[in-house]
Structures are given as structure tokens and as C-alpha cells.
């Protein structure tokens, strides 16, 4: 449907463009026309003549325009616990950090969300998600604080409302005071969905049902969480097959591996995406492909925690939807998604497929359209096509770091992290020359340091 003539238009010209559409259409020098919050037209050469209500024209010479990056897995609260337990595997890392995480409160979570979002948005992320699962008693409105931070920054956002109901007293990992009751977690999740989830095409905020992981939740919470999500019509998310220790845990406790366990509880399907999925055998990958279950691939975090190399090329060949995730910044201290394009490509080339594992365009697709797929939003974001939402990034590729690389997509994937000259979400610019337009980065840094120090003091006091 054509935009009304009264729509305000932004015209971008003279840019290299990677649309990441179904045909991987690219233009060496092309245009993009935005009408209000939608992409109106895209193509080679100059924009059409006679456009009405053009409020801005951008000469994008020396830039590559791509869809905005889509982050599919994160834990924002970890922004204030970076740099700890740096030589641990996953289980030991969790044991070391749960006592600290269990003392977070609303003020800490708000600042941590601001820091996490700022770092991603400044680096080309236009759609973010947060899997928040730590809700200590009397800690305030944590979900509201996270969603408010995303709204203030102008980023499209999915909150995966997490939960844990099994603790040390049950033989699981979280401290006893860090978990909710099964009934309480389900009730709070339903309340969060009803209060914040927007199912519309141009939604800025959505909510998913997201029990934490097999080693912190009961089978009852997983099953009832799936039933709740499907009753409310929202997506589902959790951690799965991250480490060999998790595989062993599931076999010992449930008599089956993680994928079979999830399927037995109703937690596979086109409305589900899992984080990590490092230790997947052929049968697991086939189950994901058969059910349409998506994967959030977190290469830097997987390496940081020595979890292993996910079989991303095999997943893609089988038809499994795969996106990229930063993961929490206590296991990926950089907090950036654009570096994951490069890391996904390089780390997967260390696996069985070697140099044929991924190429530059596949990496870009993981970070854009693939992410939109696993968040259930491929019809409105993730590629640059007429009628889709105007979420896009202008990467500067004519500077020192990139000017001698002839191919623009190779430049931003294989090269250093490219500067973001402009980033738009819903047709509204949120970044200019690598600086946020709706947040004070220096103030966020000061606040984050203060809250990190406060959390450390509270933890030390026991």
C-alpha cells in the first residue's frame, strides 16, 4: 500500500545498499525513501522525482546501508557485573555470580539496561531483547524499568520475561532467595504480557514467556509456561544445550538430552527460540528444523565460557532459523552485536566446515533477517523492502578502517567495527556519528559505575 502524500519523507541517496531480502539484492549506488515509519521505495540510482513532503535528504556517499541489527539474546542486568569470574566455565561462573545477581534492585536494573542498550544502539542495533529472569523479593518493578529504558532510547524491544523456581535446596544452581514460586512466576509473567505486549505490525514493545534454563526451573514451570504463552499468543524463549555439563545434567535428572526434554514439555515450535544450542546432535537439529524452533547464536559468550562451537552451518542447511545474540555482558564484556557478525564467521570457521562455514553475507543475514525470524518479526523488520518498518543503519566505509576493502559487506563483516553515521528506528534517527541522540552516554557510564559499586558493597555485606 502506497504511503499517503501527506507522509513526511526522508530520502537517502548515493549509498551502497545490502537489502538482505530473499534474493540478497544489493545496489552499488542506490536510494532509500522513508515515508513516516515505513520504507516506501528502494532501488538503484537516485530516488524518484517529484516526491512530496521531503523533510530531509541524506547524501550517503561512502556508506553502506543495511537493515538494523537485531539482538536475539541478552541479560541487561549483567552490565554492572562485568569483568568477574573471567576464568570459569558456565556452571562455575553461575555459582560464582548468582549471589551477586540475587541482590539487584530496580535502580540497578534500570541503569544496567541503559548501559546495555546504549552500547548496542550505538553499534547499529535497532531491535534489542532482554532475557531477564532474576526477580529478588522486594526489588521493585524490574520489568517496567527495563522496558522504560528501551522506550526512552528509542529502540524496538522484546522483553523475555524470565523466571526461576528451583534453587539450591532442590539440588539446582540458584540461591534459595533468588527464585520465585512456580505460581508466582507464572502470574507475574502473565501480568507483564497483558501490561506491555503490543501485537501490532509496528510494535515497539513485545513480551515473550521465558523460563530460564533446565537447571533452574521445574518441569511444571516449563510446561505451564508454554501453555501460558500459547494462550496469550506470545513467543517463548529459554537457554538450551549450552554446555556438556547441561547435557549431563538433563540426562541424569530427566533421562534424556535437552532437546528431547524441551519437546516433551511443549517447548519446541515456530513460536520458540533457544539461546546457544552449542551441543546439538543431528537428531536435535532435525527436531529444531521440523518444529521451526529458532536459535540465538552467541559466539563471543560461547567462547568466553569455553562452551564450544555451535553447529550453525548445519542448522542453516537444515532450515533452522538462526539469529545473533550478545548474551549478558558478564560473559561478553564488549556488549556489542556488530562485533558478533565477525566473530560468528571466524569462530564457525574453526569448526568442521572450516572456510566454507559462513561467508560475509550469511553473517550479515544472521544479524538482521535471521534475528527478525527468531523474534517472530520477519514480516516487518530484518530486511530493506518496501512496506517494511524503517529500521536501518548507515555504516561509514570510506574511512581508514575500511576504504581499501572493495566489497562493502566484506568491509563491515571482516573489517574492524564500522562507525555508525546514522541509525534509524521506526523512521526516527537515534544515533548520529556514533553518538546516541536520546541518552547521555557519560551520565550512563557514571551511574553504571556507581550502581556496580553499590551492588558489590551489598554483596560483600552478605
Automatic annotation (TrEMBL):
Pfam families: Amidohydro_1. Its EC number is 3.5.4.32. It is an enzyme of class 3 (hydrolase). Keywords: Hydrolase. It comes from the Bacteria. Residues 64-429 form the Amidohydrolase-related domain. GO terms for molecular function: 8-oxoguanine deaminase activity. InterPro entries: Amidohydro-rel (IPR006680), Metal-dep_hydrolase_composite (IPR011059), Metal_Hydrolase (IPR032466), MTA/SAH_deaminase (IPR050287). Transmembrane segments: none annotated. This is 8-oxoguanine deaminase.
Amino acid at each position: 500500500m502506497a504511503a499517503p502524500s501527506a507522509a513526511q519523507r526522508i530520502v537517502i541517496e548515493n549509498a551502497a545498499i545490502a537489502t538482505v531480502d530473499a534474493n540478497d539484492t544489493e545496489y552499488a549506488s542506490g536510494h532509500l525513501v522513508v515515508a513516516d515509519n515505513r520504507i516506501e521505495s528502494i532501488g538503484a540510482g537516485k530516488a524518484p522525482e517529484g516526491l512530496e513532503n521531503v523533510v530531509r535528504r541524506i547524501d550517503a556517499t561512502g556508506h553502506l546501508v543495511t537493515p538494523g541489527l537485531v539482538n536475539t539474546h541478552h541479560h541487561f542486568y549483567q552490565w554492572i557485573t562485568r569483568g568477574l569470574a573471567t576464568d570459569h566455565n558456565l556452571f562455575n561462573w553461575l555459582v560464582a555470580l548468582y549471589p551477586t545477581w540475587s541482590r539487584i534492585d530496580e535502580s540497578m536494573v534500570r541503569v544496567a539496561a541503559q548501559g546495555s542498550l546504549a552500547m548496542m544502539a550505538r553499534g547499529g542495533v535497532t531491535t534489542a531483547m532482554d532475557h531477564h529472569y532474576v526477580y529478588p523479593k522486594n526489588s521493585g518493578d524490574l520489568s517496567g524499568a527495563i522496558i522504560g529504558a528501551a522506550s526512552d532510547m528509542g529502540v524496538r524491544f522484546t522483553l523475555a520475561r524470565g523466571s526461576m523456581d528451583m534453587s539450591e535446596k532442590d539440588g539446582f544452581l540458584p540461591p534459595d532467595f533468588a527464585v520465585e514460586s512456580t505460581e508466582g512466576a507464572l502470574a507475574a509473567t502473565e501480568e507483564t504480557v497483558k501490561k506491555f505486549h503490543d501485537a501490532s505490525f509496528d510494535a515497539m514493545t513485545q513480551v515473550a514467556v521465558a523460563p530460564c534454563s533446565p537447571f533452574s526451573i521445574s518441569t511444571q514451570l516449563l510446561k505451564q509456561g508454554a501453555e501460558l504463552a500459547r494462550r496469550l499468543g506470545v513467543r517463548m524463549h529459554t537457554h538450551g544445550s549450552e554446555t556438556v555439563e547441561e547435557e549431563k545434567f538433563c540426562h541424569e535428572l530427566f533421562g534424556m538430552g535437552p532437546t528431547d526434554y524441551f519437546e516433551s514439555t511443549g517447548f519446541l515450535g515456530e513460536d520458540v527460540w533457544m539461546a546457544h544450542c552449542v551441543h546439538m546432535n543431528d537428531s536435535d537439529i532435525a527436531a529444531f528444523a521440523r518444529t521451526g524452533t529458532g536459535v540465538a547464536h552467541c559466539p563471543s559468550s560461547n567462547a568466553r565460557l569455553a562452551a564450544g562451537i555451535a553447529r550453525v552451518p548445519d542448522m542453516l542447511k537444515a532450515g533452522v532459523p538462526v539469529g545473533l545474540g550478545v548474551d549478558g555482558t558478564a560473559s561478553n564484556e564488549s556488549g556489542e552485536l556488530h562485533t558478533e557478525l565477525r566473530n560468528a564467521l571466524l569462530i564457525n570457521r574453526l569448526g568442521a566446515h572450516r572456510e566454507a562455514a559462513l561467508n560475509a553475507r550469511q553473517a550479515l543475514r544472521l544479524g538482521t533477517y535471521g534475528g527478525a525470524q527468531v523474534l517472530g518479526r520477519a514480516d516487518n523488520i530484518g530486511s530493506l523492502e518496501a512496506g517494511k518498518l524503517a529500521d536501518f543503519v548507515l555504516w561509514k566505509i570510506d574511512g581508514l578502517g575500511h576504504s581499501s576493502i572493495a566489497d562493502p559487506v566484506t568491509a563491515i563483516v571482516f573489517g574492524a567495527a564500522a562507525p555508525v553515521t546514522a541509525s534509524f528506528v521506526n523512521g526516527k534517527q537515534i544515533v548520529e556519528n556514533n553518538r546516541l541522540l536520546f541518552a547521555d552516554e557519560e551520565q550512563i557510564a557514571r551511574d553504571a559505575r556507581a550502581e556496580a559499586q553499590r551492588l558489590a558493597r551489598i554483596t560483600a555485606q552478605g
